[in-house]
């Protein structure tokens, strides 16, 4: 059995974990306006450390975004990506980015599917995501299971 993590990096990062054949997921890393600029990244690092303690993670997959609608979104994504890849290197865990279109096409059959279509497709698979961020991470986890030879 393999334990993998799938992440939809962003201001509201969605995550999914395959651990011992079971899937866990959520959405996290909100900060208040009173938090320092690095607080979300510190919380993200603590989250990764906690996941590693709970599961022997063999691989990490993340949604690879090539275009952002705003500067803040690009900076946030870049910060999460930098912290994630550095953490994976430090832990000697392989990681891979997967394009948004590839994930959408796998989940819905359409590379340009809307957020609602992704949520609907993930619900049809038996999950109940709280938002599109969690749905995206679940879609990525399912892609990894089907395309990367992940054993359950």
UniProtKB/TrEMBL annotation:
InterPro entries: RNaseH-like_sf (IPR012337), RNaseH_sf (IPR036397). This is Uncharacterized protein. GO terms for molecular function: nucleic acid binding. It comes from the Bacteria.
